[in-house]
Amino acid sequence: GDGRMGVVYNGDDWNFSSRIRVSFTASGTTDGGLEFGGSVRADQAIAATRGTSASVYISGAFGKLSMGDVVGAPEALFGDFYEVGYTDLSSAGGSNDIGYLTADNGGNVDCTSVGPGISACANSGPNLLYTGTFGAFSVAASMSDGKLNGATIGGLGVPVAVGNSTVATLTTETSVTQEYAIAGAYTFGNYTVGMGYEYSNGRNQLSGTDMDVDMISLAGVGQFGNTSVKAVIAHRGQDADVDWYGIGASSVFGATTVGGYIQYAEDNNANTDVTWYGLGAEYDLGGGASIKGGIADSDVSGSDAVADLGVKFSF
Amino acid sequence: GDGRMGVVYNGDDWNFSSRIRVSFTASGTTDGGLEFGGSVRADQAIAATRGTSASVYISGAFGKLSMGDVVGAPEALFGDFYEVGYTDLSSAGGSNDIGYLTADNGGNVDCTSVGPGISACANSGPNLLYTGTFGAFSVAASMSDGKLNGATIGGLGVPVAVGNSTVATLTTETSVTQEYAIAGAYTFGNYTVGMGYEYSNGRNQLSGTDMDVDMISLAGVGQFGNTSVKAVIAHRGQDADVDWYGIGASSVFGATTVGGYIQYAEDNNANTDVTWYGLGAEYDLGGGASIKGGIADSDVSGSDAVADLGVKFSF
Amino acid sequence: GDGRMGVVYNGDDWNFSSRIRVSFTASGTTDGGLEFGGSVRADQAIAATRGTSASVYISGAFGKLSMGDVVGAPEALFGDFYEVGYTDLSSAGGSNDIGYLTADNGGNVDCTSVGPGISACANSGPNLLYTGTFGAFSVAASMSDGKLNGATIGGLGVPVAVGNSTVATLTTETSVTQEYAIAGAYTFGNYTVGMGYEYSNGRNQLSGTDMDVDMISLAGVGQFGNTSVKAVIAHRGQDADVDWYGIGASSVFGATTVGGYIQYAEDNNANTDVTWYGLGAEYDLGGGASIKGGIADSDVSGSDAVADLGVKFSF
Description:
globular, about 325 residues, 17-stranded antiparallel sheet, homotrimer, about 5% helix
C-alpha cells in the first residue's frame, strides 16, 4: 500500500491532505506455463467486481492480455510525464497526464444528473489491452466493447439498484460508445520512438451530442546520463481539431529527483489555446518514505498556481 | 481471491466482462475448544460492518452457529445446481440458483425509489443459521429477526446518512418481515435425501402488499461414478400457489467438467409457467486457472439465449 | 480484524446484530530513524483515500504527527469511558463517548438533503494531530484546515461525481469551519490529571446558523488495584452554555471485567438536562474471543433502556 500527508495550496488557501491505500497483487502459473494474475486496491473493491476498476491479465510468449480498467494502447507504451508534487496537483486544471483519447477512466459515458450533487453515468465496462514486445519493437492494441453496461453513480463505479439488486434503467438516450487504439514503438539504445492512433465515437458526456474523434500521437523518450526526457506531439481530428504538444523531463542526483513538464493545446475549432506546466522535487528518506513537493500553473485566466509539500510513504 | 475475464453474449451483443475480488478468512479457537471465525470480501467490507454481507460463526460439538448474510436452512443442506458459464449467466432471467424462499440476500425489503436510478431499501439485517451433523443426519435452522434495520441504498448495503452520520428515516410504510426455515437430510452411501420448510411474511418488495408465503422442498442428491445428480421438487403456498421442479447434473472427465440444469416453475394463481436451462463446460489449466463457458436460455417470450466464454482464476 | 455476533434489545424488540471487519496496519523506518505508517480498515478504504477515514503518521524524538480522521487533542490524552456491551449500545442516545467538541468525525459540515433518505455533506477534510510525551508531561494539539473539501454523500465519505469524476459543487452556502484544540496531562504514579481546550466556529450542521463554541475540560484518571477510574468535568461556552460531568470505572477479576459510566449534561440556554449511564461485563474465552453484554439508559422521556449480549472475536 501507500500513504501520504502534507499541505496543498489550492490557489486560494492551504489545506491538509492525507490518504492511505492498501493494494493486493495476485498471480499464478498454469501447468502449460501461462502466467495470470491481477491487482486491486481496497478502495476499488466494489468497482473491481464489475471490471470498471482494477484489472486481470493472462500472459505468455504471445504477449500480455489485460482486461478491466486498463490504459489505452499509446499510454501503455509511452506513459505520462513526471508526476509533480506529492498529490500530483491535478487540481490545477492540467496535470502531468498526457491527454490520450481512450481508456484509462473506466469509460463513463452519458452522465445524467439525478439530483443536486449526484449524477448517474453509464459505463462502457471493462476494456481490453494487448501488449507485446518482439526484439526492439513493442506493440499495443486496446478496445472497449462499445456497449452500455448499466448505470452507475459516477464517483463510485458501482451499479445502482432499484429494488432488490436489480440494476436501474436510466432514461438516458441510448448511445454506443466504441473506443479502440493501436500503438507501436521502436527502441535503440537509450532512445525510444513511437506512434499511436486512437478512435472514439459517441463520447458525448460533455457536449451531449454524438461525435467522432480520432487522435494520432508521436512520442520520443531518451535517457541522457541522469536525465530522462519525453516529448509528445498529437492531433485530434474528425469532429475535433486540436493540436497538442508536451515535453517533460526528470533528473536524479543521489537521493534527490527533480522533474517537470510543459504542455500546450490549441483548439482550432474554438480558436482557443492553453499552456500549463508543473515543476517538482523529491528527496528519498529511505525505508520507503520521501519528501515531495511541487508547483503547477496554467495561463487560463482566473486560475491560480497550486503547490504542495508533503511526505509520501510506500508500504 | 479470484478473478475472471472473457466475453459474454447478452442475447443481443458480445461484451467484455472481467472482475477481481480479494477474500479474507479469519479463525481462532477459545481455551474451551470452541472454534470461531468469519470471512469477508473487500467489496463487501461496508455492508459487512452491518451484517448484511459476509458472516461470522462459532462452532463446537453442538454444531455451527453463523450470523450475517447466511443462506437459509434448506440451501445450507442442498445447495444450488452446477454453475454454468464463467459468469454464471444469471442475466438470462433464470440461473443455477434453486429458488429458496428465505435468506441469501441480506433481506432487502420495502424498497422505495428516491430518484431516477436510485432506490432506498430497508433491510431485515443479519440472519441466523444453525447447522449440525449427527451421524447420517444433518439438520439446519435459520431465521431473520423480522425487524427493519435502517434504510439503505439498494446496491450498496450501506446506511444512508442524513446530516452527520445519522441513519435516515424513510417515510416508507412500516412492515415486519419475518423469515424462518428448517431442513433435514439423511445420507446413506452416495445418496442424500432431504426436506426443507420455509416461511416468510411481509415480503412485499415486489407487490407492495403484505403477504404470507411458505415453501416446502424435497431434495435428492446422488453420486454415480463420475456424475453427480441433484433433483428438487418444491411448492410455494399460503398467499402464493407455485409448483416448481428442477434437476441438475455434472460429470468430471479428467481435466474437463461438464454440467447443466433444467428448471420449471408454474404459478397456479397467475396461470403462467416458465422453463429455463443452462449447459456449460470447463477445462482445468492447472495452477488455479480454468477455461469455462456456457449457454443459458428460457422459454419466456422475447428473451434470448445468453452465453459466455472466459478464463477463471483462483488466487 | 474483528467480528461479533449476538442480540441487541433496542428498547422495543430484540434484534440480531453481527459484523466482520478487516484491518490493515503498515509501518516503516527512514534511514534517519523516523518511524512512519498508518492503519485502515477495508470498510474505510474509499474515505481513506481522501483522509476522512483512517490516518497516517510520522514519529520521532519530537513526538508523533498524525493526519486523517484523527481524534482531537483532549481525546488523544484522556480517551473515552469503558465501552459497555458488545455493540457499545450508542443507540441509547448517549454512549460511553466523552462529548469532546472537535475532530473524531471526519468533520462533516453543512449537510444538505438532496432527496428523501440522501443528504450531501461538505467535509472539513483530514485533521492534524500532534502528541508528545516529555517525562511526566504529555501534550497534544490538533486542528482542522477549516476549508470545505467537496461534497460527500454523508454515510459514504466519498466524493460525489458529476459526469466523469468531477466533484460536484453543491449550492450550499459557503461556511468556513475551523477547529483547533490543545491538551496537557501530568502523570504521577498511578494517577494522571489533565486539561483540554477546544474551539470550533461555523459548525452549523444542526442549527443552520454559524456559531462559535469552545469547550474546556478537566480530566482525572486513577488506577486503584484492579480498578481504573476516570472522571471528566467540562463546560461549553461562547454561543453555547453547557455544563457536563462524567465518571466511569472498570475492574478486572481474572477472566471477568465489569465496567460502566454515568454522564450528566445541562444546557443552561435551553434550560434542559439529561443523565445517561451504561453498565456492562465481559468474560474472556481465550484465543481472542469473549462474551460481552451490557445495558444503557437515559432519563430522556420517551426513551427506553437498551441492552445486548454477544460474542466478540479478535483475529
